[in-house]
Design brief:
With about 230 residues, the chain is mostly helical. It has helices at about 1-35, 40-60, 70-80, 85-110, 110-140, 140-150, 155-165, 175-185, 185-215, 215-225.
């Protein structure tokens, strides 16, 4: 009996070790997969970017000349251009508020996830089209000119976009479900939603101010290199 019990015990230990090893291997595979596969948002953006690049070369590249996007005449005007900051502020606030309202409405719709990835792909398409248009005209300087057009306000608007559509990103769904299970009821959830609204408005305001008061100076200084 003792011998049998010893063998049975050894079999249990072996089975436990094999099972534990398989679990550890599966955890490693999941961790490795998570860290090697790009984020779905990045993939959608890059897909749109590539489509924009192809679109430019197929339909715009041959026709690009002196009348292209930000030609040298426009750049020379930017070098000495004086910004009417009050008028620019009104224009930017009106434009960005409409865009923010559109994103909020899309995020609350039943197809918010589809719209989120569609907008992400469209941003990638526009980025690819603009970058390759300017690179075609000015070479590597065109790439730096593109970055100057979207910094620093573009970073803040991107953060707002990701927060507004936060519950629709695939990687966040499980976390959201866990949070809802833990948080449970309404009052705490309302506080979290209020914090989210305040965060979105704060980052949005910073983006607007940087677009009005910081970006024009960056673009003007960059135009001096052309």
């Amino acid at each position: 009996m003792n011998k049998f019990n010893t063998e049975e015990r050894m079999e249990d230990i072996t089975t436990y070790n094999v099972t534990d090893g398989n679990d550890a291997y599966m955890d490693y595979r999941k961790f490795h997969y998570k860290n090697t596969v790009p984020d779905s948002r990045v993939l959608v953006f890059l897909t749109g970017f590539c489509v924009g690049m192809v679109f430019f070369y197929l339909f715009s590249g041959k026709d690009m000349g002196s009348g292209g996007l930000l030609d040298r005449e426009h750049l020379s005007q930017l070098q000495s251009f004086e910004v009417n900051q009050s008028g620019l502020f009104e224009y930017v606030v009106g434009l960005r508020l409409r865009q923010l309202a559109f994103c909020v409405i899309c995020s609350l719709s039943s197809i918010g996830g589809v719209l989120a990835y569609s907008i992400m792909g469209w941003y990638g398409f526009e980025s690819g089209l603009i970058i390759f248009s300017l690179v075609y005209q000015y070479g590597i300087k065109g790439m730096f000119l593109t970055f100057s057009m979207f910094l620093p306000h573009g970073v803040f608007y991107a953060i707002v976009f990701l927060i507004v559509f936060g519950r629709h990103w695939g990687s966040d769904k499980k976390c959201c479900h866990k949070e809802e299970t833990i948080k449970g009821r309404g009052r705490h959830k309302k506080i979290e939603n209020f914090k989210k609204i305040i965060l979105v408005l704060a980052v949005f305001i910073i983006g607007v101010l940087s677009e009005v008061y910081v970006n024009p100076e960056i673009v003007r200084k960059m135009a001096l290199f052309f």
